[in-house]
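Sequence, please.
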Protein backbone atom coordinates (compact mmCIF):
# COMPACT_ATOMS: atom_id res chain seq x y z
CA UNK A 1 0.00 0.00 0.00
CA UNK A 2 1.18 3.50 -0.78
CA UNK A 3 1.16 5.95 2.16
CA UNK A 4 -0.73 8.67 0.30
CA UNK A 5 -3.75 6.47 -0.44
CA UNK A 6 -6.97 7.05 1.57
CA UNK A 7 -6.87 3.78 3.54
CA UNK A 8 -3.21 4.07 4.53
CA UNK A 9 -3.72 6.52 7.42
CA UNK A 10 -5.47 3.86 9.51
CA UNK A 11 -2.21 1.87 9.60
CA UNK A 12 -0.04 4.71 10.92
CA UNK A 13 2.65 3.49 13.32
CA UNK A 14 2.16 5.21 16.73
CA UNK A 15 4.73 7.25 18.68
CA UNK A 16 7.21 9.97 17.79
CA UNK A 17 10.85 10.57 18.69
CA UNK A 18 13.93 12.32 17.26
CA UNK A 19 15.03 9.14 15.48
CA UNK A 20 11.72 9.06 13.60
CA UNK A 21 12.23 12.65 12.42
CA UNK A 22 15.78 11.89 11.29
CA UNK A 23 14.48 8.85 9.41
CA UNK A 24 11.84 11.03 7.69
CA UNK A 25 14.59 13.40 6.52
CA UNK A 26 16.41 10.44 4.94
CA UNK A 27 13.08 9.26 3.52
CA UNK A 28 12.83 12.53 1.59
CA UNK A 29 16.44 12.54 0.48
CA UNK A 30 16.81 8.90 -0.55
CA UNK A 31 14.72 6.36 -2.51
CA UNK A 32 12.23 4.34 -0.49
CA UNK A 33 13.63 0.93 0.45
CA UNK A 34 11.79 -2.32 -0.15
CA UNK A 35 11.76 -2.98 3.61
CA UNK A 36 9.85 0.29 4.05
CA UNK A 37 7.30 -0.77 1.43
CA UNK A 38 6.83 -4.03 3.32
CA UNK A 39 6.17 -2.22 6.62
CA UNK A 40 3.06 -0.15 5.88
CA UNK A 41 2.78 1.37 9.36
CA UNK A 42 6.36 2.62 9.24
CA UNK A 43 5.95 3.82 5.66
CA UNK A 44 2.88 5.88 6.53
CA UNK A 45 4.65 7.36 9.55
CA UNK A 46 7.65 8.47 7.49
CA UNK A 47 5.32 9.93 4.88
CA UNK A 48 3.34 11.88 7.49
CA UNK A 49 6.51 13.22 9.09
CA UNK A 50 7.94 14.17 5.71
CA UNK A 51 4.82 16.23 5.01
CA UNK A 52 5.24 18.01 8.32
CA UNK A 53 8.90 18.72 7.60
CA UNK A 54 8.16 20.11 4.15
CA UNK A 55 5.47 22.41 5.48
CA UNK A 56 8.19 24.29 7.40
CA UNK A 57 10.18 25.10 4.26
CA UNK A 58 9.87 27.62 1.42
CA UNK A 59 7.63 26.82 -1.53
CA UNK A 60 10.63 26.26 -3.79
CA UNK A 61 12.28 23.70 -1.49
CA UNK A 62 9.18 21.75 -0.54
CA UNK A 63 7.97 21.54 -4.14
CA UNK A 64 11.39 20.29 -5.22
CA UNK A 65 11.29 17.40 -2.70
CA UNK A 66 7.61 16.67 -3.37
CA UNK A 67 8.19 16.45 -7.12
CA UNK A 68 11.17 14.12 -6.65
CA UNK A 69 9.27 11.73 -4.35
CA UNK A 70 6.20 11.78 -6.58
CA UNK A 71 8.26 10.81 -9.62
CA UNK A 72 9.85 8.01 -7.61
CA UNK A 73 6.45 6.62 -6.63
CA UNK A 74 5.14 6.90 -10.20
CA UNK A 75 8.10 4.88 -11.46
CA UNK A 76 7.28 2.08 -9.01
CA UNK A 77 3.57 2.27 -9.86
CA UNK A 78 4.49 1.68 -13.50
CA UNK A 79 6.84 -1.19 -12.68
CA UNK A 80 4.04 -2.85 -10.71
CA UNK A 81 1.39 -2.08 -13.39
CA UNK A 82 -0.71 -0.27 -10.78
CA UNK A 83 -1.52 2.87 -12.78
CA UNK A 84 -5.23 2.13 -12.91
CA UNK A 85 -5.76 1.11 -9.28
CA UNK A 86 -3.66 3.94 -7.85
CA UNK A 87 -4.96 6.41 -10.40
CA UNK A 88 -8.56 5.82 -9.31
CA UNK A 89 -7.66 6.99 -5.80
CA UNK A 90 -7.22 10.46 -7.28
CA UNK A 91 -9.33 10.22 -10.45
CA UNK A 92 -12.48 8.24 -9.72
CA UNK A 93 -13.65 8.24 -13.34
CA UNK A 94 -10.43 6.74 -14.72
CA UNK A 95 -10.95 3.78 -17.06
CA UNK A 96 -8.60 1.73 -19.21
CA UNK A 97 -9.43 1.60 -22.91
CA UNK A 98 -6.99 -0.76 -24.57
CA UNK A 99 -3.54 0.77 -24.27
CA UNK A 100 -5.00 4.18 -23.39
CA UNK A 101 -7.11 5.62 -20.59
CA UNK A 102 -10.05 7.97 -20.33
CA UNK A 103 -11.51 10.10 -17.55
CA UNK A 104 -14.13 12.79 -17.14
CA UNK A 105 -13.28 16.36 -18.05
CA UNK A 106 -13.72 17.48 -14.43
CA UNK A 107 -11.28 14.81 -13.17
CA UNK A 108 -8.73 15.72 -15.83
CA UNK A 109 -8.85 19.41 -14.94
CA UNK A 110 -7.91 18.65 -11.32
CA UNK A 111 -4.33 17.82 -12.31
CA UNK A 112 -4.06 18.24 -16.09
CA UNK A 113 -2.56 21.30 -17.75
CA UNK A 114 -2.78 20.83 -21.52
CA UNK A 115 -6.45 20.25 -22.30
CA UNK A 116 -6.10 22.11 -25.59
CA UNK A 117 -3.96 19.24 -26.88
CA UNK A 118 -6.23 16.44 -25.63
CA UNK A 119 -8.95 14.47 -27.38
CA UNK A 120 -12.29 15.02 -25.61
CA UNK A 121 -15.58 13.33 -26.53
CA UNK A 122 -18.87 13.04 -24.66
CA UNK A 123 -17.38 14.75 -21.61
CA UNK A 124 -14.40 12.39 -21.37
CA UNK A 125 -10.73 13.00 -22.11
CA UNK A 126 -8.52 10.32 -23.69
CA UNK A 127 -4.92 10.10 -22.43
CA UNK A 128 -1.95 7.81 -22.91
CA UNK A 129 0.24 6.21 -20.25
CA UNK A 130 2.75 9.06 -20.22
CA UNK A 131 -0.02 11.60 -19.69
CA UNK A 132 -1.49 9.50 -16.88
CA UNK A 133 1.95 9.43 -15.23
CA UNK A 134 2.06 13.22 -15.37
CA UNK A 135 -1.36 13.44 -13.68
CA UNK A 136 -0.33 10.98 -10.98
CA UNK A 137 2.97 12.76 -10.37
CA UNK A 138 1.20 16.07 -9.84
CA UNK A 139 -1.48 14.51 -7.62
CA UNK A 140 1.07 12.74 -5.39
CA UNK A 141 3.27 15.84 -5.17
CA UNK A 142 0.28 17.85 -3.99
CA UNK A 143 -0.37 15.29 -1.24
CA UNK A 144 3.17 15.89 0.04
CA UNK A 145 2.59 19.65 0.32
CA UNK A 146 -0.92 19.96 1.77
CA UNK A 147 0.07 20.27 5.46
CA UNK A 148 0.09 23.54 7.42
CA UNK A 149 3.24 24.60 9.29
CA UNK A 150 1.30 25.96 12.27
CA UNK A 151 0.25 22.42 13.19
CA UNK A 152 3.83 21.09 13.30
CA UNK A 153 5.55 20.25 16.64
CA UNK A 154 8.61 22.33 17.54
CA UNK A 155 10.90 19.29 17.32
CA UNK A 156 10.02 18.87 13.64
CA UNK A 157 10.33 22.57 12.86
CA UNK A 158 13.84 22.66 14.34
CA UNK A 159 15.03 19.76 12.17
CA UNK A 160 13.38 20.86 8.94
CA UNK A 161 16.32 23.14 8.10
CA UNK A 162 18.39 20.01 7.33
CA UNK A 163 16.39 19.74 4.11
CA UNK A 164 17.02 23.30 2.99
CA UNK A 165 20.07 22.85 0.79
CA UNK A 166 19.95 26.26 -0.85
CA UNK A 167 23.30 28.03 -0.50
CA UNK A 168 23.37 30.61 2.25
CA UNK A 169 25.55 33.67 1.97
CA UNK A 170 26.76 34.84 5.35
CA UNK A 171 28.07 38.20 4.22
CA UNK A 172 26.31 41.15 2.67
CA UNK A 173 28.55 40.83 -0.40
CA UNK A 174 27.30 43.07 -3.20
CA UNK A 175 27.24 41.79 -6.73
CA UNK A 176 23.92 42.27 -8.43
CA UNK A 177 23.21 45.41 -6.42
CA UNK A 178 26.30 46.97 -8.02
CA UNK A 179 24.99 46.50 -11.55
CA UNK A 180 24.36 49.69 -13.47
CA UNK A 181 20.67 48.94 -14.01
CA UNK A 182 20.09 48.36 -10.29
CA UNK A 183 22.02 51.48 -9.35
CA UNK A 184 19.75 53.37 -11.72
CA UNK A 185 16.67 51.84 -10.11
CA UNK A 186 17.83 52.91 -6.65
CA UNK A 187 17.47 56.55 -7.73
CA UNK A 188 13.73 55.95 -8.19
CA UNK A 189 11.45 54.92 -11.06
CA UNK A 190 8.64 56.77 -12.85
CA UNK A 191 5.03 55.59 -12.90
CA UNK A 192 4.63 52.52 -15.08
CA UNK A 193 8.06 51.15 -14.16
CA UNK A 194 7.92 51.27 -10.37
CA UNK A 195 6.71 47.68 -9.87
CA UNK A 196 9.36 46.27 -12.24
CA UNK A 197 11.97 48.35 -10.43
CA UNK A 198 10.87 46.92 -7.09
CA UNK A 199 10.98 43.41 -8.54
CA UNK A 200 14.48 43.85 -9.96
CA UNK A 201 15.77 45.39 -6.75
CA UNK A 202 14.27 42.57 -4.66
CA UNK A 203 15.78 39.85 -6.84
CA UNK A 204 19.19 41.53 -6.81
CA UNK A 205 19.14 41.84 -3.01
CA UNK A 206 18.09 38.23 -2.49
CA UNK A 207 20.69 36.87 -4.91
CA UNK A 208 23.37 38.88 -3.11
CA UNK A 209 22.39 37.30 0.21
CA UNK A 210 21.16 40.56 1.71
CA UNK A 211 19.25 39.93 4.97
CA UNK A 212 15.57 40.65 4.58
CA UNK A 213 15.53 43.51 7.09
CA UNK A 214 18.37 45.24 5.21
CA UNK A 215 16.55 44.65 1.92
CA UNK A 216 13.43 46.25 3.40
CA UNK A 217 15.43 49.40 4.13
CA UNK A 218 16.65 49.47 0.51
CA UNK A 219 13.08 49.08 -0.66
CA UNK A 220 11.84 51.89 1.57
CA UNK A 221 14.51 54.19 0.13
CA UNK A 222 13.56 53.16 -3.39
CA UNK A 223 9.84 53.76 -2.84
CA UNK A 224 10.53 57.23 -1.40
CA UNK A 225 12.37 58.18 -4.60
CA UNK A 226 9.74 56.95 -7.06
CA UNK A 227 7.58 59.47 -8.91
CA UNK A 228 4.14 59.52 -10.51
CA UNK A 229 0.68 61.02 -10.30
CA UNK A 230 -0.42 58.17 -8.04
CA UNK A 231 1.73 57.26 -5.02
CA UNK A 232 3.77 54.06 -4.97
CA UNK A 233 3.21 52.95 -1.40
CA UNK A 234 5.68 51.28 0.98
CA UNK A 235 3.27 48.36 1.33
CA UNK A 236 3.43 47.75 -2.44
CA UNK A 237 7.21 47.67 -2.33
CA UNK A 238 7.29 45.42 0.74
CA UNK A 239 4.75 43.04 -0.81
CA UNK A 240 6.98 42.62 -3.88
CA UNK A 241 10.02 42.06 -1.67
CA UNK A 242 8.26 39.42 0.43
CA UNK A 243 7.10 37.58 -2.69
CA UNK A 244 10.64 37.44 -4.09
CA UNK A 245 12.25 36.39 -0.79
CA UNK A 246 9.88 33.41 -0.55
CA UNK A 247 11.13 32.08 -3.89
CA UNK A 248 14.31 31.23 -5.75
CA UNK A 249 14.31 33.59 -8.73
CA UNK A 250 17.34 34.11 -10.93
CA UNK A 251 18.52 37.56 -11.95
CA UNK A 252 18.11 38.23 -15.69
CA UNK A 253 19.88 41.13 -17.40
CA UNK A 254 17.64 40.65 -20.42
CA UNK A 255 14.47 40.99 -18.36
CA UNK A 256 15.85 44.17 -16.81
CA UNK A 257 16.58 45.53 -20.27
CA UNK A 258 13.16 44.50 -21.61
CA UNK A 259 11.52 46.34 -18.71
CA UNK A 260 13.34 49.51 -19.69
CA UNK A 261 16.05 49.60 -17.03
CA UNK A 262 19.15 50.09 -19.12
CA UNK A 263 20.64 52.61 -16.70
CA UNK A 264 24.43 52.75 -16.76
CA UNK A 265 25.87 49.76 -18.55
CA UNK A 266 28.33 47.57 -16.76
CA UNK A 267 31.68 47.49 -18.62
CA UNK A 268 31.35 43.75 -19.30
CA UNK A 269 27.60 43.67 -19.87
CA UNK A 270 26.82 40.88 -22.38
CA UNK A 271 23.96 42.99 -23.73
CA UNK A 272 26.08 46.02 -24.60
CA UNK A 273 25.08 45.53 -28.24
CA UNK A 274 21.79 47.26 -27.38
CA UNK A 275 23.72 50.54 -27.08
CA UNK A 276 24.74 50.31 -30.71
CA UNK A 277 21.32 49.79 -32.26
Amino acid sequence: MYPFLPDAKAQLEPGLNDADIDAAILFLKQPVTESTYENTGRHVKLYALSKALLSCLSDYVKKKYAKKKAEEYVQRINRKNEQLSVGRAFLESLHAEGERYSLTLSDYLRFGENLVHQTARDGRVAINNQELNALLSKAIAEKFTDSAAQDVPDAIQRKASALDDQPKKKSYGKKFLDLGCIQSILTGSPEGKRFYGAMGLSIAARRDGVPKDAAQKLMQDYVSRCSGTKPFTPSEGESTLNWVYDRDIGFSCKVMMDNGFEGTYCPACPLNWRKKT
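DSSP finds 13 helices and four strands in the chain.
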